[in-house]
Amino acid sequence: MRLLSKGKVFWNLTKVSINNQTPNVLVKLNPSSYSSKASDGGDKEEPPKQKLLRYPVLPLNDTLERFLLTAQPHLTPKEFEKQKEITQQFKDKEGDKLQGLLEEVGKREKNWLAQRWLTTAYLKYRDPVTVYISPGMTFPYQKFKDMRDYVDYTAKVIYGLGEFKGIVDAGQIPIVKMGKNELDNSQFGKVFGTCRIPIRGTDRIVYNPCSNYIVVIYKNHFYKLCLYDKDGCLLSAKSLAKQLDEIMAAENDFGVPYGILTTDNRDNWAEAYEQLAKTPENCEALNTIQKALFTVSLDQCIDVEPEQQATQLILGLIHGNGSKINSGNRWMDKTIQLVVNPNGNVGFTYEHSPAEGQPIAMMMDYVVKKMGEDKNYGSSGSSETGGKPQKISFAKPNPCVDQWIFYAKRNIDKLVHDLECNVLKFKCYGKDYIKKQKLGPDSFVQMALQLAFYKMHKVPGAQYESAHLRIFENGRTETIRSCSNESLAFCKAMTEGKASVKEKAALLREAVVGHQKYARLALQGLGVDRHLLGLKMMAQENGLPIPEFYSSPGYTKSMHFRVSTSQVATTYDAFMGYGPATDDGYAACYNPRDQDIIVAITSWSYNFETNPDKFAKALEAAFLEMQDVLDKDPQDNKPKSKL
Fold first, then answer.
1. Residues 6+ apart with CB under 8 A from 228
2. Per-residue pLDDT reduced to its tens digit, 2-17
3. Is residue 352 among the annotated active site residues?
């Protein structure tokens, strides 16, 4: 998993970083200032070229010193002394040579990491994108009065996404700065019309930003729906709704669930893809789906108990609830998948390879805001029909394809069974309270997660949070290592019963400030993980042995991220969720709002050490205990948070 909104940074899948560090999401976008026409790829005024930094190769000594500090909480004193020896040997021997090779690459390439990260972290990754890579991003829960209301709502969201694409095409996503540096907006142009293609060993990505249609999936059937009229103007919501009605009226029975193949292991899907592509009819169908701006899944209604609504909402977006429900009604390779269920569960599933979460969350914020402000939203589009929706036909599956569908069904059902989830909606306070304590909300939540993990497992958990690298051209993410000597000292003070309230409060503030300092470094590209990865890649690319350092206890333990986190912030009752990064860990994606904090927690059912329900209770207790400590501590001498 890898992941900004209103000054928040997302997880590298998705993971997020610093509260109010960069004021670059939830920016105001005015749809009246651009033309709602399809991009025709012809002559148009290009937005001004951004002034972005070159991604640096850091000094090796600085990175290794920071690395040792982040590894120390996971090691005994004896192990730490040994780790210092291993690290020094690495620096003196292989490290200097690999550093020289990386510096040469850094001279030739403006961002030496970008393509390598895309390939290594995503395209070579062989586990399914479902759960492991692709997050779900919820919309606020909807209460549809009837199917008419359901279809009209879906049409308005589609219209809103078309309008948002017009803003992107017009180059009107505001350029914002972090300090004096502009933040790269290129990812906004990489999500519409984008699709991942399964290939054995290493996938590839195709980009079709000038496409003029979407694909609607209903009862496993696929339809091409034109988004614009013959003059290239965006169709009105009413015109779009009419086409959705036609699609739903045309299908009484369920089709072959070809979409379920996209939920499987990438090599399995690649094998099945090769079989499908042997038929010209299938090649045309695959090509049509891949070139769509995005897909819309009109799901089958499932009953949900009110207390399980939030949990079922995010699980439905992450995996579709299995082969007998909606997992086949997907195309998981598409970057943007809008999922709408008649039960009121709405959101995005997004394939993470081409971009971080900012464009996706910003779309949700934009569409929800516009629909909330104007009950007639979508009426200003073209009243033409755009033609009838065209069914996308596959050839009858041969026995080999049937077998791959059988395997995919079995595998997704196991994945659905294995993933457990609890959505904690903590209502006792939110970021307003945290800011009044002169602490940064993001770092505060990170320390609460550290405390919850320590209370449950009696050891510090290596904790991943991603910081965006958007000050650099084509920048993606760096890791914020949230587990520190300061966070460990805080957790021990809160659990061992020896520290006074004043000591606990002081250690809490030190841990929060320590996290903020590391986060600021990471946002400037001064973390340790990407540099160390680059050195390892130099060994691989030049046929050199992987140094012992990469199998040392300090490296492996500090890289085993048992808590995979991100902040995805929005003012709405919405959140993002995804699967854990390790078999014995958790994913925790959170939305700290003014008066509450929403946290989507997942873990694996087959691991008896982890449990999302227990973790949610431990996290709620951590929030309350931290509040209690701060309320009892005198108000003087508190460090002022800059975040």
1. 37, 38, 162, 212, 234, 235, 382, 386
2. 332 333 222 333 333 3
3. yes
